[in-house]
């Protein structure tokens, strides 16, 4: 069999569960697609922001090594692009003879575009380029010139920042129609005589604000939309920044919050329709059987959990869990399966290289998913997921570890968090101040340091004013092995 083609469809800010058939979001194309492929139900991004997560997807490394921490194009960005020497899997595939085409969102670097990393560019959004003081302050000036009005339905009033219409109607949200058409046109040029190819298709939905075509809203009944169980959590036992973040969204009434959820679901339905159109174009090429198709996203959305929306420093599951469904008719064994093991966006780089038959001596934070594709059990697999954040432009060092039973969050800017995921899957009761869990938190902090040691962690400082962890990095050298939870 010839080398398989690779088609990646990566949405922006889509919660993992919305791609499952039992979820209230209606995604008929994904329902069929899941029966034809394998669904990874526990897939997580390393950081709940576009740029670091996309950089991890492209490099197979965590932010501590690839160097991208949040939006690379804002004025106060810590980093503008990838660390020197970081290589992306696209460069390997390009050298291996793959024809690479990039359509849609980039947002990996403000200093480079896909063409700098082996891709042919189609309709690319969020490409290289940075904000300047002139255009940033000019935008504020324009907003200030708008007449003041009473708050309307679904509007978040933000004096001096510009009011935000959080949901509404738009027939071509995020200009994703251009991405769809670009992908269909690029696929129309593929045939059995083509070199093996890899195509990235990156729409911008269902990113906030949630403005969607009316026909997808018509799929839902507002009476069926419920607020999440954790909505009533005022987060009094959690970092103060979490509560301050919620203040903006508390302007919305509970009815408006339910309307926002409905618009988000409709946005997921729209992305599902776009995906279906791309799959139809793939079928026309006659190459669907030997094409690995990946449906995933860069990060999730709180979707009203704890009264929060979008994504940010609050380290809740909704912002980190993403869809991940893979189809490959010619190679995947026993389609329709679900895999419950912890998967990271860092796993895609070694997966794509194995698919393409590329051998490299580089170390990855992730591991190939091909054993799961072949319905085999890997000799060893991770029992925990780690996250790394420096904050979303409001800086704050945060690291976390999640196992099947426990989640521990180290907050360098505030007090820590500990959740018993068996008893409290919605992460409502913070147990970090309970003395009976002191050793457990120390063990989990040690595992965070161990992961950091293996993945280029540099946020280490023994100065008394900032050495605030449950234990310090030296603890990993006291133990021959670290296991907990």
Give a written overview of the molecule.
- By secondary structure, this protein is of the alpha/beta class.
- The chain has two domains: 5-131 and 168-373, Alkaline Phosphatase, subunit A (3-Layer(aba) Sandwich); 403-477, no CATH class.
- 27% of the residues lie in helices and 16% in strands.
- It has helices at 28-36, 50-59, 63-66, 89-95, 133-144, 176-187, 214-217, 240-249, 254-285, 317-320, 348-355, 370-373, 438-454, and strands spanning 5-11, 38-40, 43-44, 99-105, 120-125, 155-156, 164-165, 167-169, 197-202, 210-212, 291-297, 321-322, 324-327, 337-339, 343-344, 385-389, 398-402, 406-411, 417-420.
- An eight-stranded mixed β-sheet has the order 5-4-9-1-11-13-2-14, sandwiched between helices. A four-stranded antiparallel β-sheet has the order 16-17-18-19, covered by helices on one side.
- Helix 6 (176-187) runs parallel beside helix 9.
- The mean pLDDT is 95.
So, the CATH homologous superfamily of the largest domain? Alkaline Phosphatase, subunit A
As laid out across the biggest beta sheet, the strand order is 5-4-9-1-11-13-2-14
Oligomer: single chain
| SS field, number of helical segments | 13
Topology:
Blueprint: E1 5-11, H1 28-36, E2 38-40, E3 43-44, H2 50-59, H3 63-66, H4 89-95, E4 99-105, E5 120-125, H5 133-144, E6 155-156, E7 164-165, E8 167-169, H6 176-187, E9 197-202, E10 210-212, H7 214-217, H8 240-249, H9 254-285, E11 291-297, H10 317-320, E12 321-322, E13 324-327, E14 337-339, E15 343-344, H11 348-355, H12 370-373, E16 385-389, E17 398-402, E18 406-411, E19 417-420, H13 438-454
Parallel strand pairs: 1-9, 1-11, 2-14, 3-15, 4-5, 4-9, 8-10
Antiparallel strand pairs: 2-13, 3-12, 6-7, 11-13, 16-17, 17-18, 18-19
């Amino acid at each position: 069999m010839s080398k398989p083609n690779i088609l990646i469809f990566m949405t922006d800010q889509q919660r993992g569960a919305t791609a499952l058939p039992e979820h209230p979001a209606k995604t008929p194309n994904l329902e069929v697609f899941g029966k034809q492929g394998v669904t990874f139900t526990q897939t997580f991004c390393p950081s709940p922001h576009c740029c670091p997560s996309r950089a991890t997807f492209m490099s197979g490394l965590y932010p501590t090594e690839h160097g991208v921490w949040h939006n690379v194009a804002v004025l106060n960005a810590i980093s503008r692009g990838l660390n020197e020497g970081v290589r992306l899997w696209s460069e390997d595939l390009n050298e291996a003879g793959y024809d690479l085409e990039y359509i849609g969102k980039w947002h990996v670097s403000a200093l480079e575009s896909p063409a700098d990393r082996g891709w042919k560019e189609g309709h690319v959004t969020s490409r290289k380029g940075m904000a300047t003081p002139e255009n940033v302050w000019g935008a504020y000036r324009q907003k200030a010139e708008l007449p003041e009005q009473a708050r309307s339905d679904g509007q978040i009033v933000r004096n001096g920042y510009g009011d935000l219409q959080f949901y509404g109607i738009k027939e071509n949200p995020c200009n994703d129609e251009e991405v769809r058409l670009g992908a269909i046109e690029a696929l129309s040029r593929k045939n059995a005589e083509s070199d093996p190819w890899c195509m990235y298709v990156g729409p911008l939905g269902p990113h906030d604000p949630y403005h969607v075509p009316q026909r997808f809203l018509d799929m839902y009944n507002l009476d069926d939309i419920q607020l999440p169980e954790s909505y009533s959590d005022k987060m009094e036992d959690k970092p103060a920044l979490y509560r301050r973040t919620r203040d903006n969204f508390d302007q919305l009434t509970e009815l408006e919050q339910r309307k926002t959820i409905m618009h988000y679901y409709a946005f997921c339905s729209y992305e599902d329709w776009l995906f279906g159109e791309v799959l139809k174009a793939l079928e026309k090429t006659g190459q669907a059987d030997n094409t690995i198709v990946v449906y995933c996203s860069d990060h999730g959305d709180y979707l009203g959990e704890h009264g929060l929306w979008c994504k940010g420093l609050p380290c809740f599951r909704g912002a980190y869990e993403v869809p991940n469904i893979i189809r490959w008719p010619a190679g995947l064994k026993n389609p329709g399966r679900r895999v419950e093991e912890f998967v990271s966006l860092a796993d895609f780089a070694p997966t794509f290289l194995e698919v393409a038959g590329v051998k490299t001596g580089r170390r990855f934070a992730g591991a190939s998913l091909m054993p799961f594709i072949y319905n085999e059990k890997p000799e060893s697999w991770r029992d925990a997921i780690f996250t790394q954040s420096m904050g979303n432009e409001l800086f704050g060092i945060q690291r976390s570890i999640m196992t099947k039973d426990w989640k521990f969050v180290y907050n360098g800017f505030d007090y820590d968090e500990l959740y018993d995921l068996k008893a409290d899957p919605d992460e409502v009761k913070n147990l970090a101040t309970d003395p009976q869990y002191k050793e457990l938190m120390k063990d989990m902090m040690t595992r965070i340091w161990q992961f950091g040691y293996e993945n280029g962690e540099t946020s280490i400082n023994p100065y008394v004013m900032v050495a605030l962890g449950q234990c310090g990095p030296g603890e990993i050298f006291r133990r021959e092995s670290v296991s907990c939870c």
